[in-house]
């Protein structure tokens, strides 16, 4: 592996080190063994913390994202992250989230920078949902991730519910088990039972207040039971004062313990009244060491504990959790053997080194041959017909598609329509024109292949599959396919049968699939574009530009000219009809007066294309294109003089025709002679 391949890990944890960081922290050594350089980013990094000292000693780069004083912290962090992403150019950014959306702003930066990213979500909360106004953008971030890792199935499903999507790019990964999976000697019970409530003192998550209220009942006061609350956090003082108020003599508050294995020599069970969790490290550790857990079903707890077999599971409220504790107390003589079952559960259900598995998964993400096709549908006030285009894209036989709808400021029912398709990346943009919408779609595209589908067109189900087969089989820069053209009044025509630009090529090549070399491409695309947007699929790596604003019709032609004329290129097309172009009267090309098309496409746009590519044209190509421009000027001049009686405008375009190419005079004269000869011929025939 090249030493240039780098991974950036960004943690959203605001503490010096949190439980949510153990997974990626344990994963780093394996990534470095694979040859990756690892940079760790966090708003503030305590370099003196043992975890960061160890990572730095391994060779990981520590990069704090310290906010600047003169601007908001969030803006400063974002700017610093953009700077480091652009400088490092990582193969992947891994974003470690405490809750399932506190790192989505960071992920969005990666999306804007077109940098691959994966997310790890530790916790999801039933009562704390993302803001509705932000859900569309957040949903797009999830849909565009290389992978979304979750430490419990519960939190994956809750995230899908909160965002209203199914995440096909999601994977479950366990938190690491930091102790040996061996049953520790069981403490004696003659003097009573000791429970450990281990976790951060943050009662909104960990629910220690629930347990204190239960312990205040007379039945629990009277039992030989002691509970140790172990940890640190902002609510510790408040919980201690609550215990004092309730006169709880059977509880104690202890600081964090470093020797986890020895700690469990003194406790019979773990008790966890948590309201919200991921898959807590303390649960994995307690079960691995042969201790049962009396826990709520928060997060992944119920996925590890089989109620009544290797622990006890309830809900985070005083009535139900009291009942669970009562059941556990009744079965206390079986805790030892249940603890042995708990150890076996961890051995059998949790991988030996989940952190290594995560490293392998990340490595696969980076190395996998990406065949993803990003499909961009630009749209503007077309809710009535847009759905047909979306459905045709979603029903493609090709399996790996990212569909993006770039809404160029629609004010119709497009928003409501897109709510039906949460699996589609929906970009609600200010009105900026078709090129702007396509470029925004391109900015969010993750695929190595790009296809664009106009919102009034429909693909056949095999369109992408056939295009990918062509482009890969012949190593092409782009491909295009034939289509049925709506001619109005229900009439459709095979487009290639009336395509003047391809007429010569089609006569010379009777085969179904036709490959065009560099010379052929230059000749064909010099004065016409036989491949409108909906017919195209191209390699992202072949792009030489984005779509160009300022063009009225020819933005697809301009994009392809940039590919063709800036260097050697190769393309191909199929005669097979793989899509349908509809006419709804709103298309920039549909139903237009011929002379309006001449003005917009064959004069305005062609002038810009000529100026843009002039430096790449040969002498003969320049002459040919100037002659084409001259012919178009003359046609438009005729229209203004004959039909509109605008003599000044007519003379202007006549002058432009002469200026563009002197050959137009000879061409007009030659045409005039032919007409005169035909007239004389008809006259002779009529007199004979």
Description:
- The structure is a single chain.
- With 688 residues, the chain is of the alpha/beta class.
- The protein has 4 domains: 6-172, Glycogen Phosphorylase B (Rossmann fold, 3-Layer(aba) Sandwich), CATH 3.40.50.2000; 193-351, 3-Layer(aba) Sandwich (Rossmann fold), CATH 3.40.50; 369-589, Spore Coat Polysaccharide Biosynthesis Protein SpsA, Chain A (Alpha-Beta Complex); 618-677.
- Helices cover 43% and strands 19% of the residues.
- It is built from 27 helices and 23 strands.
- The strands form 3 sheets. Strands 14, 15, 16, 17, 18, 19, 20, 21, 22 and 23 form a 10-stranded mixed beta sheet that branches. A 7-stranded parallel beta sheet has the order 3-2-1-4-5-6-7, sandwiched between helices.
- The protein is elongated.
- The N and C termini lie far apart (88 Å).
- Mean pLDDT is 89; it is low at 587-591.
* Helicity, as a percent range: 40-55%
User: What percent strand?
Assistant: 15-25%
Number of helices: 27
Distance between the termini: 88 Å
Mean pLDDT: 89
CATH fold-level name of the largest domain: Spore Coat Polysaccharide Biosynthesis Protein SpsA, Chain A
Top-tier CATH class of the largest domain: Alpha Beta
The profile of the biggest β sheet is: 10 strands, mixed
Assigned CATH architecture of the largest domain: Alpha-Beta Complex
| CATH-level-4 superfamily name of the largest domain | Spore Coat Polysaccharide Biosynthesis Protein SpsA, Chain A
Computed structural class: alpha/beta
Total individual domains? 4
Q: Can you tell me the residue ranges where pLDDT is under 50 for at least 5 consecutive residues? A: 587-591
The 3D shape can be described as: elongated
Task: Give me the Rg, rounded.
Answer: 34 Å
């Amino acid at each position: 592996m090249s030493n240039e391949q780098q991974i950036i890990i960004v943690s959203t944890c605001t503490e010096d080190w949190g439980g949510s960081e153990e997974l990626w922290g344990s994963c780093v050594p394996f990534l470095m063994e694979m040859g990756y350089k690892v940079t760790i980013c966090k708003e503030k990094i305590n370099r003196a913390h043992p975890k960061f000292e160890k990572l730095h000693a391994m060779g990981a780069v520590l990069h704090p994202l310290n906010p600047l004083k003169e601007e908001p912290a969030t803006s400063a962090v974002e700017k610093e992250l953009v700077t480091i992403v652009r400088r490092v150019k990582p193969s992947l950014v891994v974003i470690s989230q405490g809750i399932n959306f506190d790192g989505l702003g960071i992920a969005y930066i990666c999306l804007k920078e077109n940098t691959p990213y994966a997310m790890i979500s530790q916790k999801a909360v039933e009562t704390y949902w993302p803001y509705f106004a932000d859900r569309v953008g957040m949903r797009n971030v999830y849909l565009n991730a290389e992978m979304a890792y979750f430490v419990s199935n519960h939190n994956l499903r809750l995230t899908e519910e909160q965002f209203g999507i199914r995440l096909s790019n999601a994977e479950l990964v366990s938190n690491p088990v930091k102790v040996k999976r061996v049953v520790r000697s069981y403490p004696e019970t003659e003097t009573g039972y000791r429970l450990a409530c281990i976790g951060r003192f943050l009662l909104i998550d960990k629910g220690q207040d629930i347990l204190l209220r239960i312990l205040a009942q007379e039945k629990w006061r009277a039992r030989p039971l002691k509970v140790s609350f172990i940890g640190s956090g902002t609510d510790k003082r408040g919980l201690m004062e609550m215990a004092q108020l309730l006169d709880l003599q059977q509880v104690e508050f202890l600081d964090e313990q470093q020797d986890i294995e020895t700690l469990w020599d003194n406790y019979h069970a773990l008790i966890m009244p948590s309201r919200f969790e991921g898959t807590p490290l303390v649960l994995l550790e307690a079960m691995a060491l042969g201790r049962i857990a009396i826990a709520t079903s928060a997060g992944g707890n119920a996925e590890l504990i089989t109620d009544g077999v290797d622990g006890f599971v309830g809900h985070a409220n005083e009535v139900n959790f009291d009942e669970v504790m009562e059941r556990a107390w009744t079965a206390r003589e079986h805790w030892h053997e249940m603890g042995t079952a708990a150890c076996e559960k961890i051995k059998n259900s949790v991988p030996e080194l989940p952190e290594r598995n995560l490293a392998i998964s990340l490595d696969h993400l980076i190395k996998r041959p990406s065949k993803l096709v990003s499909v961009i549908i630009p749209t503007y006030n077309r809710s009535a017909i847009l759905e047909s285009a979306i459905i045709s894209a979603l029903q493609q036989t090709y399996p790996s598609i990212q569909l993006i709808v770039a809404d160029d400021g629609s004010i119709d029912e497009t928003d409501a329509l897109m709510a039906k398709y949460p699996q589609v990346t929906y970009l609600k943009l200010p009105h900026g024109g078709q090129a702007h919408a396509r470029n925004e779609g391109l900015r969010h595209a993750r695929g190595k292949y790009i296809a664009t589908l106009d919102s009034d067109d429909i693909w056949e189900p095999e369109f992408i599959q056939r295009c990918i087969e062509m482009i890969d089989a012949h190593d092409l820069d782009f491909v295009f396919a034939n289509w049925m053209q709506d001619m109005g009044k229900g009439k459709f025509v095979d487009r290639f049968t009336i395509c003047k630009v391809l007429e010569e090529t089609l006569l010379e090549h009777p085969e179904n699939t036709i490959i065009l070399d560099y010379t052929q491409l230059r000749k064909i695309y010099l004065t016409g574009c036989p491949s409108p947007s909906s017919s195209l699929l191209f390699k992202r790596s072949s792009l030489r530009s984005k779509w160009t604003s300022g063009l009225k019709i020819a933005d697809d032609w301009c994009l392809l000219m940039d590919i063709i004329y800036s260097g050697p290129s190769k393309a191909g097309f199929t005669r097979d009809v793989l899509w349908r172009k509809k006419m709804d009267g709103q298309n920039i090309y549909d139903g237009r007066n011929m002379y309006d098309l001449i003005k917009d496409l064959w004069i305005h746009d062609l002038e810009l294309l000529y100026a843009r590519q002039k430096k790449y044209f040969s002498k003969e190509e320049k002459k040919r294109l100037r002659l084409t421009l001259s012919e178009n000027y003359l046609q438009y001049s005729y229209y203004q003089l004959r039909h509109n009686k605008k003599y000044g405008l007519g003379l202007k375009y006549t002058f432009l025709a002469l200026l563009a190419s002197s050959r137009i005079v000879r061409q007009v004269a030659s045409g005039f002679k032919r007409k005169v000869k035909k007239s004389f011929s008809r006259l002779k025939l009529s007199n004979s």
